[in-house]
Amino acid sequence: MALKGDRHEFDTDISYFMNEAASRGYLVSVSTQGSGSAMDSASSLVTVAANGSGAAVLGVLLNDMVDIDQTRQHVNWHKDEVVKGGKVTILTKGFVVTDAIAGTPTAGQTAYLANSGKFTPTSATGYATVGRFLSTKDADGFAKISVNLP
Asked: What is the domain range of residue 82?
C-alpha cells in the first residue's frame, strides 16, 4: 500500500494510459505522447520512471495498476484497480499521504522526484520539483505531501 485515504484531489488528469503494473502513490512520468488533445490515443502513456533524471513528471498515480487474468478474476473496483493497459487517474494538484518516499523529509522541505517514482527531500540536477512535504514520516513510513504540478 503506498497511498492512504487522507488526501485532497484538487486537480486530476485522465488523459493517459499505463502499460505496466504499479502501485498508487508513486509519481508517474511521460513515456510516450500523443498529439493534439490525445484523450484516447494509445500513444499517450505514462510510466514509473526507474531513473528520474530528466523525466517529465505528470503527477501521482491514484490507481493500482494490476496485471491479472480477467477470465479468472475481476478487477477490484473497491481498491480502485485498473488493468494494465487501461486509463489512469493522475493527481496534479492537491495533497496525498504516501510511503513512496526516499530519504528523511521534514515539514516544509521541497519534494523532488527520486528514482523509481518516489518522492525525496534531496535535490539533484535533472530531477523535477513536485511539491512540498507537509509532515515527517510516521512509524509506518508515511508522510503528507502537497503536490503542485502545472
From this structure: 8-148
Rounded CA-CA distance 4/25 in Å is 8
**35 vs 92: CA distance, rounded Å:** 20
How many separate domains does the chain show?
Answer: 1
Residue 68, amino acid: I
Q: Which of 90, 92, 87, 93 is nearest to 38 (CA)?
A: 87
pTM for the whole thing?
0.89
Cell numbers 493527481 correspond to what residue?
A: 91
Rounded Cα distance between 57 and 107, Å, is 22
User: What is the rounded distance in angstroms from the CA atom of residue 125 to the CA atom of residue 8?
Assistant: 29
State pLDDT tens for residues 48-99.
999 988 899 999 999 988 876 656 666 666 667 777 888 999 999 999 999 9
